[in-house]
Amino acid sequence: VLFQIMELCGATRLGYFGRSQFYIALKLVAVAQSGLPLRVESLNTVKDLPLPRFVVSKNEQESRHTALYSSDADNSASYSGVIPPPPGRIQVKKGSVSHDAVQQRTSTDQQESTSPVVSPQQSPPTSPHTWRKHNRHPSGGNNERPLAGPGPFWAPFSEAQPGSSTSSDPIWSGHSPPPHQENWVSFADTPPTSALLAMHPASVQDQTTVRTVASATTANEIRRQSSSYDDPWKITDEQRQYYVNQFKTIQPDLNGFIPGSAAKEFFTKSKLPILELSHIWELSDFDKDGALTLDEFCAAFHLVVARKNGYDLPEKLPESLMPKLIDLEDSTEVGEQTGEVGYSSSPAEAPPSKSPSMPSLNQTWPELNQSSEQWETFSERSSSSQTLTQFDSNIAPADPDTAIVHPVPIRMTPSKIHMQEMELKRTGSDHANPTSPLLVKPPDLPEESKMSSSVKFTAGNTVTDGYSSSDSYTSDPEQIGSTVTRQRSHSGTSPDNTAPPPPPPRPHPSHSRSSSLDMNRSFSVTPGQQQTGVVAYPPAVPPRPQPSQGAGPHVHRPVDAEGLIAHTSTSPQQIPEQPNFADFSQFEAFAVSGVNKEEEDEIETHSEVLQVEKPSDSASSLRVAKADGRVEDKAPANVPTSASKGTTPLAPPPKPIRRRLKSEDELRPEAEEHTQKTGVIAAVLASQPSIPRSVGKDKKAIQASIRRNKETNTVLARLNSELQQQLKDVLEERISLEVQLEQLRPFSHL
Amino acid sequence: VLLSIICSPPQNYPLYIRSVPTENELKFHYTVHTSLDVVDEKISAMGKALVDQRELYLGLLYPTEDYKVYGYVTNSKVKFVMVVDSSNTALRDNEIRSMFRKLHNSYTDIMCNPFYNPGDRIQSRAFDNMVNSMMMQVC
C-alpha cells in the first residue's frame, strides 16, 4: 500500500517527496487506512478522510515535513484539524526554517491552508480522539505503525491540530516530542491535492523521509527509529539533511564550527524571542565553546523548529539531540578543545539527556573500582597519585600494572573512547581526573577489565572525591569533552581530588583529628586509662590494632596504613613480639616512666608528626612501654603514615602495602588493635586481590568487583586518613614524651 | 539562608539576584550593596597584584546580623557576592570557593551564548538551575 501511495504522490511528482507530495502521501495513507482505494482522486474527494493512523513515530521526519507541509486544504478533512495550525506553523516555520525552499512552499501552503482549514477541523475532532488513543499507545513504543514514520506524527498532529491544539497539547504533553512532530505532520496532512501541484523542490530530506516512510512499513523499523528516541526530539533523516544543508550554507566545512555570531544571525531569522534563542543555545552548545558544530547546530535547529511549532523547549537537551561524542572525537582529539568544554556544569544542564554512553560510563565506574586496586598498587609504586594520572595517559608504559588500566578505554562506548582520547590529551594535566585518566587509557589496553580497573583506580585514586568528580565528569560523556573542558573541570576537581590522596594525613590535621577523636572514642578499649586529651589517639589506636592481630600481615598492611594510627596503643604484647622493635623495648622503659601523661598532653601537638620515622619507632617503643599504648599508636601511626605517605590514601593494595609497610608490619602486629578497621580492611583486601584476577572474567563480575573495591577503597581511604592523622598525633606525642623522658632521665638516676 | 548576587561593572548593577527562602531580601540587597564598596576597594588595592581570583569576605560579618558576606571577582571585574547566614555552621572556605567557582563557570557559559548581551539580566534557566541546586545544597 505504501508503495502505491508513494507512487501516487511521489512518483508523479518529483523524484523526491516535496512538501506537496508529502501531503499527498499522507492523505493517501489516510485513504489507505480508511480502506478506501488508493486513488489520487480520493485525496481530493474524501473530505472526511480519517487522519491517517500512524503509529506515533517520533520521527522527526514528519516534523520536517510539517515545515514542508503546505496545507492542502482539500483532503485536509482528515488533516484539516491539522491544517489550520500547520499553515500557521508553516509560515512560522518558514520564517525560521525558511532558509531554503521552504518559502516556496509557503505560497502554496497558504493557499491550501485556507480552505482545508475549515473542513478538517470538523472531522478531525473525531479522528483525533481515536488517534490520540492510538498515539498514546504507540508513543510508548511504536507498535503498529502502519506507516511507520509519518503515522505517528500525523496522529498526534491531527489530534493536536483539530482546533483544540491546546487541548491536544495536553494530550500530547506526554508525547511532548510528538506534538512537535505532529506539527510537521499536520502540514503533510494538509491535503496534498494542491500540494501535488507545487512540487517544490523538496529538499532531499523529503526524499529521505519518504524513504523512511517506506521503510517504515516494516513497522517496527521506523517505530524503532522514532521510538528509539522515545522522545519527540529525534531528528529525522530528512530533517538532519536539511540541517546539514543549512549548516553548509554557513560553514562549508562540515567538521568546522559555526561561530556564535553567525549562528545568532541565523537563528534570529527564526523570529523567536531572544530569550528562547538564548535558551536553545544553552541547550545545544554542548561543549560551551561559543560555536556550534554540526551536531550542535542540528540540535539547535531542531529545537528552533520545535519551538516554532509550538513545542516548548526542554529544560535539558534531549538525548537524541546530544551531539555524538564519536563524531566529535576527531575534532576533540585534535585538541581543538574548542567545543567540547564539557563543564561539569553542562552535565547539570543536560542530565536527562545523558546518552546511552552514559550508562556504559557508569558501568565503567564499578570496573574502575576494580582497577583502582590495581591502580593503587601502581600508584603506590609511583608513590604519588599524580603519577597515576600520567599512567593513564601514558597508557601502561611505565608500570605493568597499568596494563590493567587499558581495558578501561576499550570498555567505554565510542563516546567514551573519545573521551579517553581526550583524556590522553589531558595527560598529566590533572591527576585527579578520575575519568580522564581512565578514559584516556589508550585503546591499547587489551582488556576491558583492565580498563575498568584502571578507571577504577583513577577513581579510587581520588578517593571519594575522585568518584564524585569522575561522576560529574562522566556525566558528560556526551560532551565532546574537549580536553580543555575536561581539564577545566578536572583541574577544578583534580586539585581537590589529588589533594586528598597524597597528603591524607596532612591535610586534615584538624579534620582527621576530630574524626580520629571520634574513632578513638569509639575504639577506646584498652586505653581507658589514657588521658582525655590525648585519649583521642591512644584510644583509637589501641582498639584497632588489637583485633587485627590475627589478620595476615598483608592484610594488616593495608589496614595498617589506616590503622597504624590506631594500633599504636595496642599494647606491650605486640612489642615483644617483634624483634625489630628493639627500640620499643627501650622505649618501654621510658614509657613506663610516666612519660605517658606528658606524651598524652603532647600528643595533641602535631608539630613533628612527620618527622616520624624515628620518632615513630621511639614512639612505638614507647608505646610498648606504655600501657596506654599511646606511643604505640604514634609509632605505628608514624611508620604507617610515613610509609603510606607515598601510597595513595586509598586502601593500598596488598602488594604495595607490603613493601612499604614492612616495617609497619612489625609494628602492625602490635597494632593489631585496628581490629575493627583491619577486620574490615582485611576483608576488603582479601577481596581485592581477587579482583585483579578477575580481570579476565566477565565484565559484570569485574564491574561488580570494581564497585566493591571502590567502596572498599573509599572506606579504607577514610580509615587511612584517620589513622594517619592519629598516627601523626601519636608521633608528636611520642616525640614530646621522649623529650620529657630525656629530661627526666637524669632525675631518675638521682 | 543564602543569597547570591552577580554584579557587573562598571556601574555595578546587579545582573542576577537569587536568594533562598527567607524573605529578608531587602536587607540582603542593602548588604550586598555596601559590600560592593568593599570589593571595589579591594580591587583597587590590588594594583599590580592583579586578579586575586577569590576574595573571601569575612570582614563584613556584623556581630548582630550574624551573616557573612563573601565576594569574588573575575578578571573582567564581574563581582559575585554571596551572603550566608552565620548560623549556617561552617560553610567552609573551600565550599565557598567551590561555589564561587561554579558560579563563575556558569557565568562563563552564559557569556558564550551569542544571544546573551553582556549587561543583560541573566535569564538563563541553566544558570538558575545551577544556582538553585547550589543553594539547596547549602541550606
From TrEMBL, chain A:
InterPro entries: EF-hand-dom_pair, EF_Hand_1_Ca_BS, EF_hand_dom, EH_dom
Chain segments annotated as coiled-coil in the UniProt record: 709-740
Compositionally skewed regions (Pro residues) per UniProt: 498-507
Entry superkingdom: Eukaryota
Residue span of region Disordered: 60-184, 335-387, 425-578, 595-680
Pfam families found in the cross-reference section: EH
Biased composition (Polar residues): 101-112, 161-170, 361-387, 451-463, 480-497, 517-533, 567-577
Gene Ontology CC terms: cytoplasm; plasma membrane
Annotated EH domain residues: 239-323
Entry's Gene Ontology molecular function annotations: calcium ion binding
SMART domains: EH (SM00027)
Residue span(s) of domain EF-hand: 272-307
Low complexity bias spans: 69-80, 464-476
Keywords: Calcium, Coiled coil, Metal-binding, Phosphoprotein, Repeat
Comp. bias intervals (Basic and acidic residues): 625-635, 662-676
UniProt record, GO biological process: endocytosis; endosomal transport
Entries under PANTHER family matching the protein: EH DOMAIN (PTHR11216), RALBP1-ASSOCIATED EPS DOMAIN-CONTAINING PROTEIN 1 (PTHR11216:SF63)
Name of the protein this chain belongs to: REPS1 protein
Species per Swiss-Prot/TrEMBL record: Indicator maculatus
Gene: Reps1
TrEMBL record, chain B:
Pfam families for the chain: Sedlin_N (PF04628)
InterPro entries reported for this sequence: Longin-like_dom_sf, Sedlin, TRAPPC2L
Transmembrane segments: none
Lineage: superkingdom: Eukaryota
Keywords assigned by UniProt, alphabetized: Cytoplasm, Endoplasmic reticulum, ER-Golgi transport, Golgi apparatus, Transport
Gene Ontology, cellular component aspect: endoplasmic reticulum; Golgi apparatus; perinuclear region of cytoplasm
Family (UniProt): Belongs to the TRAPP small subunits family. Sedlin subfamily.
Protein name in UniProt: Trafficking protein particle complex subunit 2-like protein
Species per Swiss-Prot/TrEMBL record: Indicator maculatus
